[in-house]
What we know:
By secondary structure, the chain is an alpha+beta fold. It contains four helices and 15 strands. The strands form four sheets. A five-stranded antiparallel sheet has the order 8-7-9-14-15. Strands 1, 2, 4 and 5 form a four-stranded antiparallel sheet that branches. The protein has a three-stranded antiparallel sheet with strand order 3-12-11, with no helix packed on it.
Amino acid sequence: MKPIPIKTDSELATMREAGRRAAQVLGQVAGLIRVGVSTQELDDFAKMAMGLAGVRSAFLDYHGYPAQCCISVNEQVIHGIPGPYRIKEGDVVSVDVGIWHEGFVGDNAVTVAVGEVSEDVQRLLTGTRLALVAGISAARAGARLGDISNAVEKVARAHRLGIVDEYVGHGVGRALHEEPQIPNFGPAGRGPVLRPGMVLCIEPMLNLGTKGVRLLDDGWTVVTKDRKPSAHFEHMVAITPDTPEVLTPRPDYNVAQVF
């Protein structure tokens, strides 16, 4: 494994602002999710919101990705490409927003239920959200990377959810994906020691059915093999000498309140 970058105080200050702006854009886009709105309309709005926030997409043209943000519906796990699909009652819609601000990335994601959903789908959303909270709670200086993975896995299994193992969380900073990779499963007490100044994107990707996924022919969209719904929540978190610092706080979901 390559060394995990340690951010200086100045770099962390810039990343706080990048995270704040990424969370602002995500909250605005998620607030527009409703029946009849197309995923392309959400992406068009994201472009406008990024412009008003003085940032640009970190996803557009990343290895050829063709949109401002990733919008994944129902069985789509991650990297859904916005298009003509119009949101329906009972859908679950995941929005992943990444932005550039002064040379640093802000990255976060949320999954939204549209109208009434089944108890199983609510279990999926609640379990994935709580898995993220558990992962963040474990992200403390002196702990090991595996402690985050194990905390996420315990909550996922308690909610009887499939854990996607082909896609993982990651470090973040001057690049969208830095070391380390952060699986959503695994034993505690293993992996690199977490040190102040590390910045991590913790992002459970959990399925209502099995863990199996496959990549569609568009080369981006990942779907569940059994076509059951999936959920994705993500926060950008800084390791500090004290409690972990969520760099992408949102009024609708402020994990910092749990500490």
